[in-house]
Amino acid sequence: MVDTTESTEAADRLESALTGRIDPTALDEIATVAQQVPQAEIARLVHTSTPLQSAMLFRVLPKAEALAVFENLPPAYQAELIGNLREPEVADIVEGLDPDDRAELFGELPAGVASRLMKGLTAEEREMTSAVLGYPKSAIGRYMSPEVLGLHEDWTAAAAMEVVRARIDGPETVYLLPVVGPGRVLRGVVSLRNLIAVDPDTVIEDMVRDSISTHALSDREEAAREFLSHRLIAMPVTDQEDRLVGILTMDDVLDIIDEEDAEDIARSSGSEPLDRSYLSSTILRLVKSRIVWLLVLAVSAILTVQVLEVYEDRLDQVVVLALFIPLLTGTGGNTGNQAATTVTRALAVGEVRIRDLWKVIWRELRVGAMLGSVLGILGFVIAGLVYGWPIGLVIGLTLLSVCTMAATVGGLMPIIAKKLGADPAVFSNPFISTFCDATGLILYFTIATTVLGLS
User: Fold this and answer.
1) Phi and psi at residue 423, to the nearest 5°
2) Per-residue DSSP letters for 161-202?
3) One domain, residues 123 and 191
4) pLDDT tens-digit map of 84-100
5) Coil/strand/helix, residue 11
6) Which of 9-18, 195-204, 264-273, 367-376 bottoms out in mean pLDDT, i.e. has the lowest?
7) Which residues, in sequence order, are bridge partners of residue 190?
8) CATH of the domain at 64
9) Cα–chain center distance at 199
């Protein structure tokens, strides 16, 4: 057993070797140190290093370990890494990938490189990879495994077990086995446990059970969420005629969910998701992921400036009103973001559907009113004691109004985005903050004008 301290020191030496002078003579040092480092640490170093440094490390790894590490890298990073590996190394890696993982990689490579690598595959592997590549990137068919073991409904359990034993190394999973009829039409599924337990003469048709399946053209996130909601270990994938074309497994689903969640988190905070680890991303790539959203939000924030300009004369009459602007805009933005995040999550897991729009509006209206009442009373008391009761009343009523408005809009926007076919996360935090800032200021000065009798 490798000592933890020794392996940590070896990992540090390996990282130093990778980030040092890059030339062929460094490979000997890297190879020596890499033998003392656990595979999990090797995977981390590959993921956080530049593609050129990762390529150096790949060249000294055993084939099986290199393939295991490569499979866990993001497809975009895999594509850059391929460009820094020698042709024989590339061929070995590509051949060892599952067809769905290979299709993801080819989708990131230049067409000429992908075509050349495709030609190096066997006819069977080339056919399966082409089948997966035929689906859009947003479709679940792009992520299924076409290597699926389907049992015919008229087989006996004994005959089915013979087929499973003969082909056990091919399919990605055999724990859940689809059952097909004539023309490979999906009839249902049987579990390997039940297949082993029943009498050998039992006909598969007599033990098949209904299955939860998905069409190959279904949206990948919706299919993945359904997979998780039913706690499946595998899900058959069919074409439009219900013919079995592949199977979806847990590792594919987790990859999809991780990617979708990373995208939602990034966009809800006003940036684009990175297609590789933070440390392996260049400074320019980090800037590109953030600058577009900053420009959009900066332009949209002009609305807030214009509102302040319109009500500039009110501020001149009661200067103390300016002190509460950060409090009110911040409260509105935070309230809207809370509602948007909650509804976006509910949409993602299927708890809320588009037709629930009015239910969501009614719920968030009441939630916002209750939150606004609590904050409004607090604001009324504190501001009233310090700046006078008329100012306290303005602050209290504004907090009530802003919270009610922000919660309602925050719950509404993700559903509208879903209806329009856009990403709900895009419509959430950044845009809601800007919208609530401008609208909240209009409410604030309208209430102040009425209560204080300004003109």
Assistant:
1) -80, 120
2) HHHHHHTTTSSS--SEEEEE-GGGBEEEEEEHHHHHHS-TT-
3) no
4) 776 676 777 787 788 88
5) helix
6) 9-18
7) 177
8) 1.25.60.10
9) 44
Cα dihedral value 222, 223, 229, 232, nearest 10: -170
Same domain, 379 and 436: yes
In this structure, what DSSP letter does residue 145 have? B
Q: What is the mean pLDDT of residues 90-117?
A: 79
Q: Model pTM?
A: 0.71
Q: What residue has token string 């990073």?
A: 77
Residue 277 belongs to a domain: no
Residue closest to 222 by CA, chosen among 256, 245, 273: 256
What does the block give as tokens for 251? Answer: 């590792």
* Interstrand relation of 151-152 and 176-180 (parallel, antiparallel or unpaired): parallel
The range of the structural domain enclosing residue 406 comes to 301-452
Total structural domains within the chain: 3
287/228 Cα distance (integer angstroms): 35
Domain boundary among 197, 230, 257: 257
Task: Write 3-8 long-range contacts (CB < 8 A, 24+).
Answer: 6/36, 7/36, 7/37, 7/38, 7/41
Residue environment code for 71-106, b if the CB has 16+ CB neighbours within 10 A, otherwise e = bebbbebbbbbbebbeeebbeebbebbbbbbbbbbb
List, in order, residues 6 or more apart from 295 with CB less than 8 Å away: none
CB-CB contact of 39 with 69 (8 Å): yes
Residue 391 lies in a domain: yes
CA angle 368, 370, 372 (to 5 degrees): 65
Q: Do both 431 and 352 map to the same domain?
A: yes
The answer on pLDDT for 6 being more than 60 is no
Asked whether 154 and 205 are in contact (CB, 8 A), the reply is yes
